Amino acid sequence: MRTATTDANVGKVDDMIRANRHITIDEVAEELGISHERAQNIIHNILRYRKVSARWVPRQLTSTHQEQRMAVFLFRMNFLFRIVTGDETWVHHFTLELKAASMEWKHLSSPV
Question: MF terms per GO, please (predicted)?
């Protein structure tokens, strides 16, 4: 009887997650030729990874950076006022990721 929870498979799963934090359990299972349940057991119980939603972390801007951003904004705003005309039609140019697509694997010792 062959067991899927070998040291080799555990090492491969850890390498796969470190290479791609967005990888799914099904992708891991398919790559290694093991069941979904075995892949989930390796990830959650042996390697102690958990899936968390990726977050945008604001950074501290210096006053110089803030001034530069404001200058760029004002330039672009004036540029758009000269070009864009029309009625109140909304055009979305950015599509948000689904929450599931933005999730990442984190180890228990990783900072949140």
Answer: nucleic acid binding
φ, ψ for residue 66, nearest 5 deg: -60, -40
**Over the stretch 48-84, which tens digit does the pLDDT of each residue have?**
999 888 766 567 778 888 898 899 888 888 777 766 6
Which spans in the chain are helix H? 7-19, 25-32, 36-41, 63-83
What pTM did the predictor assign?
A: 0.52
Angle at CA 51, nearest 5°, toward 50 and 52? 115
Q: Percentages helix, strand, coil for the chain, rounded to the nearest 5? A: 50, 10, 40
